[in-house]
Amino acid sequence: MSNLKRGLSPAASPSSKRARTSPAFRPKKIATVDAAAAVDSDTPLSKLLKVVEDVGKKSKATESVVYWMRMGDLRIKDNRALSLASAHAKKADVPLVVVFILSPQCYKAHDRAPRRIDFTLRNLALIKASLQKLHIPLRTITEPNRRVIPHQIISFLEHLNASAIYANIEYEVDELRRDIEISKAAREKDIDAIFTHDKCVVEPGVVLTKEKRAYSVYSPYQKAWLKTLNANIPHFLENYPEPHPNSESVHTMAKFGALFDSLVPESVVGFELDPADRAKMEQVWPAGETAANEILQRFLHTKSRSSQLAAVDPLAEGAEDSVKRSRISVYDAERDRADKDTTSRLSPYLAAGVISARACVRATMPDTKNTTKKVDGGRWVQEVAWRDFYVCILAGFPRVSMGRPFQEKYADIVWEGPVLEGAYTDNQQERLNPKAKLPLATAESHIEKWKTGWCRTGYPIVDAGMRCLNEMGWAYLHNRARMICAMFLVKHLMIDWRIGEKYFMEKLIDGDLASNNGGWQWCASTGVDACPYFRIFNPYSQSLKADPTGDFIRHFVPELAAVRGPDLHNPPPSVADKLGYPRAIVKHEDSRDRALRRFKNPGEA
Ligand SMILES: Cc1cc2nc3c(=O)[nH]c(=O)nc-3n(C[C@H](O)[C@H](O)[C@H](O)COP(=O)(O)OP(=O)(O)OC[C@H]3O[C@@H](n4cnc5c(N)ncnc54)[C@H](O)[C@@H]3O)c2cc1C
């Protein structure tokens, strides 16, 4: 990246050269049972929290305080770590500096969608401009080798003679381990590394069972979550103040002035969008906190519209105000409809932290200052609680992010299709599907063809959903359609849920490991509080409920644009043949029998 060489550059990392020339980076995805159990028994989050227990007690002379912005907290308002860093800098009367590390390897390891990376960069550019007005520099660093990020950060802090670095916690295993390493290295240099919870309304580790474990069933979790929240609203829904401006003189200070020259790149190598797609994404998912807040306000105060079906401007004119028929007021009854904007469509903004989950809950309350008022726990707030729930699962049972099913008894289910060599440990690969083990290149091209097939299954609701994600669509999918597609892939086609999970992450603009893994494991019946394995929906009947007008299917499956009535959801072979639409690739009843057999007898085909 051109900006690597601009302005202040931390000392070159020892192995970054090696990383650039190393062979393709292929992180392994499935841990062994023992490795996963070991991580669950002493979680990286609890280790990090122990390491940082005694920070903030030093009084080192300082020239600056640093806030490390991450992919999940792209905002200035109500940002806990940023707010705390700013207060620290003000008290010490030193400049606040913001740093953002772009890591293509992390993006690859997490299967990030190019559209998600583009969304990140668009938001960062706006943040940089806003911080500039406060005389706060935002320095972006592109680091090709993720292993050296701790070294990069420490040398950056040393260069700025910073006494403290603040960041909001990322709950993924690799990121927690990285932060543990940074905490230890920072301590050796007498620098405080302060990691704060910010992603959830109620952070992991607070809502626990009687046995002091994370809940693995949603209903009791949600009740306890609401009770905990309502018992201390000022704490859980605190609106963290925006950062104080730096003194204007920071621009002329040798160490800091050059930081303002650091540019937010237009793209990250390997995650570029073509210009037309970028323009479309700019329109459909406008960047910035103002846009996020307006989208929230639309959801709270205006009616849903069938014109808002797909890749359109969420803030397009014509929204009609209504108290009784606003989207949130009728959310309980209408949220499963994929044929209009019945839900908030805030997930990309929540996943990227462009808006805080706290702000979303606060907005549902008439007056947060009046502590006698409670969060009502209506259906929409319960969905925000689902998001917290899955973060707690990831933090409390990190095995789920190591390619393991939450319910180990289903680890040996035989899935169909090719197995991507290098994505699994050897014994797991054998167990998944010994006959289908293919050389990497063949498997990858096979999987590519296979994925194309997922848009032509002959089940219109599935094809519409899968097309909604890809180039034709808008990198987003309505929750009910996500469930129908994921269930179809895992139960009807017996696709390994990990392959589906990866595919969604590679496409979604709201891709989030905790929610995506939770959603896939729920559909695959392998997860926490999952759908029972014998609940195998008929996609046709699901289609009638999710898309009663048929507009969703007609939009994404143009082959069927002229079809009306029930044929749209279940085209008879003669209709399909005439319109060039594929016949159903599997029979519901046959697939159902196969899935039941395999779930009853894990390990048998
Ligand atoms: C297979 C599968 C994969 C999924 N992958 C993701 C993902 O990568 N990222 C993601 O943010 N969500 C994911 N979800 C959850 C859900 O589909 C989306 O959050 C939702 O569709 C977003 O639309 P919205 O913002 O209009 O939601 P709304 O209905 O307006 O809900 C408000 C917010 O609550 C949260 N939420 C709602 N439903 C869920 C849920 N079931 N689980 C967790 N949080 C929820 C989201 O943050 C959402 O923005 C997945 C669900 C499934 C079934």
From TrEMBL:
One of its GO terms (molecular function) is DNA binding. Its cofactor is FAD. The keyword Flavoprotein applies. SUPFAM superfamilies: Cryptochrome/photolyase FAD-binding domain (SSF48173), Cryptochrome/photolyase, N-terminal domain (SSF52425). The keyword Oxidoreductase does not apply. One of its GO terms (biological process) is circadian regulation of gene expression. Binds 1 FAD per subunit. Keywords: Chromophore, FAD, Flavoprotein. It holds the Pfam family DNA_photolyase. FAD binds at residues 331, 343-347, 380, 383-390, 510-512. The record marks 415, 497, 520 as: Electron transfer via tryptophanyl radical. Residues 64-201 form the Photolyase/cryptochrome alpha/beta domain. Residues 9-24 have a biased composition (Low complexity). GO terms for cellular component: cytoplasm; nucleus. It comes from the Eukaryota. Residues 1-24 are annotated as: Disordered. Gene3D superfamilies: 1.25.40.80, DNA Cyclobutane Dipyrimidine Photolyase, subunit A, domain 3, HUPs. InterPro entries: Crypto/Photolyase_FAD-like_sf (IPR036134), Crypto/Photolyase_N_sf (IPR036155), Cryptochr/Photolyase_FAD-bd (IPR005101), Cryptochrome/DNA_photolyase_1 (IPR002081), DNA_photolyase_1_CS_C (IPR018394), DNA_photolyase_N (IPR006050), Rossmann-like_a/b/a_fold (IPR014729). Belongs to the DNA photolyase class-1 family. PANTHER family: CRYPTOCHROME, SI:CH1073-390K14.1. This is FAD binding domain of DNA photolyase-domain-containing protein.
